[in-house]
Amino acid sequence: MQSALNFHRDARAVVGNPVLRAGFRGAMDFLMAKRAAQFPDEGAFAELRAAGEAIRRYSLARLPDLLEQLERNLTANGIRVHWAETPEEACALIIEITAKAGGKLVVKGKSMVSEEVELNHALAGAGIDALESDMGEYIVQLAGERPSHIIMPAIHKTKEEIARLFAEKVPGVDYTDSVDALIQIGRRVLRDKFRETKVGLSGVNVAVAETGTLCLVENEGNGRMCTTVPEVHVAITGIEKVVEKLAHVPPLMTLLTRSATGQAVTTYFNWISGPRRPGELDGPREVHLVLVDNGRSGAYADPRFRATLQCIRCGACMNHCPVYTRIGGHAYGTTYPGPIGKIISPHLLGLEATAPLVTASSLCGACGEVCPVKIPIPDLLIRLRQQSQGNAASPLIPGAGAGRKRLMATAMGLWSRLYGDPGLYRLFAWVATRFRFLAPSRQGAWTDSRAPLKPAARTLGERMADRR
Amino acid sequence: MSTGMPPPRSYPAKPADVYLFGTCVLDLFDPEAGVSAAALLEREGIRVHYPPEQTCCGQPGYTSGFPEEARRVAAAQLSLFPEPWPVVVPSGSCAGMMRLNWPALFADDPQHLPAARAVGERVFELTEFLVHVCGTRLDDRGGSRKVVLHTSCTARREMGTHLTGRALLAQCAGVETAQQAREAECCGFGGTFSVRQPDISAAMAADKAEALEATGAEVLVSADAGCLLNINGTLEKRGSRLRGQHIATFLLGRLEGRS
After folding, report:
1. Of B133, B137, B135, whose CA–CA distance to B122 is shortest?
2. Which of A369, A389, A404 is the last residue before a domain boundary?
3. Is residue A260 situated within a structural domain?
4. Contacts A–B by Cβ distance under 8 A
5. Is residue B5 over pLDDT 70?
6. B211 min Cα distance to partner chain A (Å)
């Protein structure tokens, strides 16, 4: 079960690990520079992201209609559409499709929704092997870990760690830390599996309602293999990924690839519009789409949280996040780490399991500044904090009040009484300044890394009164 | 808010009177900065009014998820600025709270919303006000100093006032402004974040301190007292020689040949 309940412990472990810290810092610096190079003109970027935001907001405003239209047109194209309200339903559907095809192995392209529903675990329970074919995901799977970044799943691993992992886990491989050689090893292993498997699985970047098309961007060609070589292709995605028109795809993909990896375009762009047709020589015999809700309709129904679903999963918010840069992805304990993870996970998992995440932001705004579809992430975090403290409970987010601690609530109540009453505050400030020599040398967590706070000899209010 | 630079703001002509909102941090921890801000404004021929009942903009409660508590504090400020004068705030973060977040805070409170909006619209961050409204010209009488500027995230991303502090420093002939690595990165303060996520906050503050120290600057200058509490506390604990000063204190010192 995913949960952020060990967040403080896990974050502290990474903060204290210089190798991981340096690795994340270097990788994030690299990704930020790559992205910046793709948006040299501030005005052009502002226009493009305004278009991206408008498309996503328009799509969400019409979401129920678009989903119905998408289902109609996918069905007309021969793609079978399945709806899953929960992770369990999604997994059961995919297990059933795989079993019907007589499959013992599912070869997977990169899909964060499949991570979200913990598909590999469910497949294993049904006696079906899952093999990740995205190089980063393959590494993470070999290591028995989870992705630490939604775009770069193995960003937490050094080249040497991967070399040791391959030597240990891949039969017949000697230690090499040549990146090219490692990639060739991975490709060789995977190539055989593509031929062998009956079921290929992929994610979806955008689903187009008017044409019934699934769009998938990728750089390694494994996505193309997963979606064309096996007899059966299963795509899985969240219900929010739909747009109305084909014309809505280019602005979103331009924003996605530039924001994510600093690429003007990805190496592969797959448009999937149905199974193999009569007379065609290749392509899958069956194509399925599993549309997953898993808490999204709760976020959708509350107008204060709907913007959460604008996300196109580029990962720029985590690349630019000073918190993610310090602790990496695993510490969050959830499928989606970083700023987007902090605002989406409470809807997927409830606040009981995610309360520590909503406080894990200095609200610096770097995420909102780079978000290609202008999700006001800091504002949403503030609203989630209200939910978590039980101060503005929406029935649509499970676990309201889960983050409330008596000490914090009492402190806020005292602060409010004191600073809400000028006379009382003056008295407090007079005492605090006159007795400043009593300021303790240990001031809770503040003084773990800082010198203690000491009030001035006289307040600004007093000094300003003197000047008159 | 929070998704990039605000639209350019139109500025009024230089007024004869302004209110000064000193902020709770300056009131208790750095009154010198507030007094210096008043002196810089008076130097422009402006009368400075300091409502003695002022306390805090309400930001700590607002950003921590306690809107009711924040409203109570913010509401206590709303009647303190009855004249239509600008409200000058020597802190980007507090100015941002008053100007941009008060409307959201009071959105469901029709009794206070009009006043919150009316006051918020008149709020200016100090360096923004000096540059854009006063057209301040600084006559630098200080010696040769190497300075590094830290700009708060609110000033940079919400208020768009990250360039005005730099512009004022650039007017000081004797001041060399050093460039720090990752200038736009947060110092790790974030109000209650600093004590609710102390490990992460400390890591951010340590990196910031290191970047500032690496510039070889003699003085750190900032228009945000909250960041300065965090950075100065961290620098002091590290045994660093570098210390931060509020930009108002620093600039007034330059005019008087002190800093």
Report:
1. B133
2. A404
3. no
4. 225
5. no
6. 14
Contact list in A for residue B77 (CB cut-off 8 A) is: none
Is there a single domain that holds both residue A163 and residue A146? Answer: yes
Q: What is the mean pLDDT of residues B59-70?
A: 97
- Inter-chain CB proximity B28 and A429 less than 8 Å: yes
Same domain, A395 and A411: no
CA dihedral A309, A312, A316, A317 (to 10 degrees): 0
Q: What is the CATH number of the domain that holds A390?
A: 1.10.1060
- Taking only Cα atoms into account, the Rg of chain A, rounded to an integer number of angstroms, comes to 25
A192 assigned to some structural domain: yes
Convert B212-229 to b/e letters by CB count within 10 Å (16 or more is b).
Answer: bbebebbbbbbbbbbbbb
Evaluate whether residue A262 is within a structural domain.
no
pLDDT digits (tens, 9 = 90+) for B162-217: 899 999 999 999 999 999 999 999 999 999 999 999 999 999 999 999 999 999 99
Q: How confident is the model at residue B160 (pLDDT cuts 50, 70, 90)?
A: confident
DSSP A117-176: TTHHHHHHHTT-EEEE-SHHHHHHHHTT---SSSS-TTTTS-HHHHHHHHHHHSTT----
Interface test with B, best of A255, A340, A443, A464 (most B CBs within 10 A): A464
Q: How confident is the model at residue A149 (pLDDT cuts 50, 70, 90)?
A: very high
Please name the member of A362, A446, A455 whose beta carbon is closest to the beta carbon of B28.
A455
- Measure CA of the first residue to CA of the last residue in chain B; give whole Å: 36
Residue of A327, A362, A430 best to disrupt the B interface, most CBs of B under 10 A? A362
Say yes or no: A309 and A178 in one domain.
no
Question: Domain range holding A448?
Answer: 406-467
This model of the complex carries an ipTM of 0.96
**Cβ–Cβ below 8 Å for A15 and B200:** yes
Are A111 and A231 found together in one domain?
Answer: yes
Pair A26, A87 in one domain: no
Task: Give the tokens for residue B188.
Answer: 């790790």
Instruction: Specify whether the CB–CB gap between B224 and B248 falls below 8 A.
Output: no
Q: Do B4 and A368 touch (CB under 8 A)?
A: yes
Model confidence pLDDT, tens digit, residues B117-151: 999 999 999 999 999 999 999 999 999 999 999 99
A428 touches chain B (CB under 8 A): no
Confidence of residue A364 (pLDDT cuts 50, 70, 90): very high
Does residue A310 contact residue A53 with C-beta atoms inside 8 Å? Answer: yes
Q: Contact B226/B251 with Cβ under 8 angstroms? A: no
Phi-psi region of B85 (alpha: psi -120 to 50; beta: other; left: phi over 0): beta
Domain C-terminal end among A386, A404, A422: A404
Same domain, A167 and A84: yes
CATH number of B145-255: 3.40.50.11810
Tell me if A171 is assigned to some domain. yes
- How many folded domains does chain A comprise? 3
| Residue A284 and residue A302 share a domain | no
Q: Which of B67, B194, B203 lies closest to A386 in CB terms?
A: B67
What number is the average pLDDT over the span A269-273? 97
Does A33 lie in the same domain as A173?
A: no
CB atoms under 10 Å from CB of A15, counted, come to 21
Distance of CA B108 to the CA centre of its chain: 28
Amino acid at position A196, single letter: E
- By Cβ distance, the residue of B26, B158, B190 closest to A460 is B26
**Cα–Cα dist A440/B254, whole Å:** 34
